[in-house]
């Protein structure tokens, strides 16, 4: 390249008489900047973007253009565009690594769409790239429930925020991939154990058939929403820390497929509210022996009231019924019954490092 930055190197390719014209050499600089770039050191980035340090010429962009079609190399802003090439809709809550992996792998799964194998492979692909494990099990041998299947995922992280995020993502994938005539339930397992004593309250109730609650109803109900509302009245100062040390669960007997449920939970205004969806196959008969349990790790007594409601929507409107209303008292849990991490300092004195309010259990939704 000509070391004189004020004269275009393109001028050397012109006839000799034109190479002597200074104006023409400067005029060609504009074309050289666009086509070849004017920097002696080209951009060292694999993929050229508007943020590249040295503005590249068109020739350099063309040399690297193949990388724009590589899901692992293309700039992040190009990922949605590349997804359109393989007819893939990306979720906004996916990490960029997951989006790239799906674009790279999704085409081979299209021939398996609607099959047990295809759904299992797609869920495994998501969990693996989200670094949450890759164990997926699908059970479909239910004699009395045709077109029903159950998906069980095992996560390696029990963070409740991640738990519900992954539950929603998994449901979206299942809804997109499953055959239209089928229905399902999703169970998510997380690492679990229990190392503490807790104060506990439980009350058993029954979920009647819809016809028993509303004999005159003629609408078809595909699902109902079961809600438990725990209102804490004591202690006088109910902080978020107090509420976070209280767990509320729906539970059935251990021999059923209901198990301990990790429902969607919201807290605020001295209340803990959990929700559980029951689907049509679960509503074919009255559900007896369903229990709402409340457990506390607080070192103060907890007094309050628990209410259980059932509701559903139809084309005839929304219906809601109260199934249970009960006062409860949870005794304080001494700190001696809560797991503590201790260590000896340099002179041998035992130091309590941290109190861990651990409430763990095998969870599913």
- Biggest β-sheet: count, sense, barrel? 5 strands, antiparallel
Q: Find the count of extended strands (DSSP E, 2+ residues).
A: 13
SS summary, helix count: 10
Query: How many domains in all?
Result: 3
- What's the overall geometry? elongated
Spans of at least 5 consecutive residues whose pLDDT stays below 50 are: 255-261, 353-365
Strand content: 25-35%
Mean pLDDT: 77
Q: Over the alpha carbons, how many angstroms does the gyration radius reach?
A: 31 Å
The helix fraction, in percent, is 10-25%
**Given the helix and strand composition, which structural class is it?**
alpha+beta
Q: Brief description of this entry?
A:
By secondary structure, this protein is an alpha+beta fold. 22% of the residues lie in helices and 30% in strands.
Describe this structure in words.
Helices cover 22% and strands 30% of the residues. With 365 residues, the chain is α+β, with helices and mostly antiparallel strands. The protein folds into three domains: 61 residues, no CATH class; 114 residues, no CATH class; 157 residues. A five-stranded antiparallel sheet has the order 7-8-5-10-11. Strands 1-2-3 form a three-stranded mixed sheet, with helices on one face. A hairpin with a 2-residue loop joins strand 10 and strand 11. The C terminus is likely disordered.
């Amino acid at each position: 390249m000509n070391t004189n930055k004020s004269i275009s190197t393109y001028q050397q390719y012109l006839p000799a008489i034109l190479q002597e014209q200074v104006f023409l050499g400067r005029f060609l600089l504009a074309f050289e900047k666009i086509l070849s770039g004017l920097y002696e050191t080209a951009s060292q980035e694999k993929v050229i973007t508007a943020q590249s340090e040295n503005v590249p010429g068109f020739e350099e962009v063309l040399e690297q253009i193949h990388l724009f079609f590589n899901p692992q190399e293309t700039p992040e802003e190009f990922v949605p565009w590349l997804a359109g090439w393989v007819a893939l809709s990306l979720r906004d809550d996916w990490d960029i690594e997951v989006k790239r992996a799906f674009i790279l792998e999704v085409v081979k799964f299209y021939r398996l769409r609607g099959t047990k194998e295809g759904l299992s492979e797609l869920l495994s692909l998501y969990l693996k790239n989200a670094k949450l494990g890759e164990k997926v099990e699908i059970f479909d041998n239910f004699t009395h429930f045709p077109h029903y299947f159950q998906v069980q995922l095992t996560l390696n992280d029990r963070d409740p925020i991640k738990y519900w995020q992954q539950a929603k993502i998994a449901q979206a994938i299942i809804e997109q991939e499953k055959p239209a005539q089928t229905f399902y339930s999703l169970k998510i397992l997380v690492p679990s154990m229990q190392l503490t004593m807790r104060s506990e309250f439980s009350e058993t109730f029954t979920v009647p058939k819809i016809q028993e609650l509303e004999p005159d109803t003629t609408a078809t109900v595909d699902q109902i929403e079961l809600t438990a509302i725990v209102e804490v009245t004591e202690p006088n100062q109910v902080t978020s820390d107090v509420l976070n040390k209280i767990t509320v669960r729906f539970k059935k007997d251990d021999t059923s497929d209901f198990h301990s449920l990790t429902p969607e939970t919201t807290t605020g205004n001295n209340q803990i509210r959990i929700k559980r969806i029951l689907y049509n196959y679960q509503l074919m008969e009255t559900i007896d022996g369903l229990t709402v349990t409340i457990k506390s790790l607080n070192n103060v007594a907890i007094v309050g009231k628990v209410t259980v409601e059932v509701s559903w929507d139809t084309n005839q409107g929304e219906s809601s019924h109260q199934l249970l209303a009960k006062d409860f008292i949870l005794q304080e849990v001494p700190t001696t019954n809560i797991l503590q991490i201790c260590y000896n300092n340099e002179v041998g004195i035992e130091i309590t490092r941290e109190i861990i309010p651990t409430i763990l259990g095998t969870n599913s939704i």
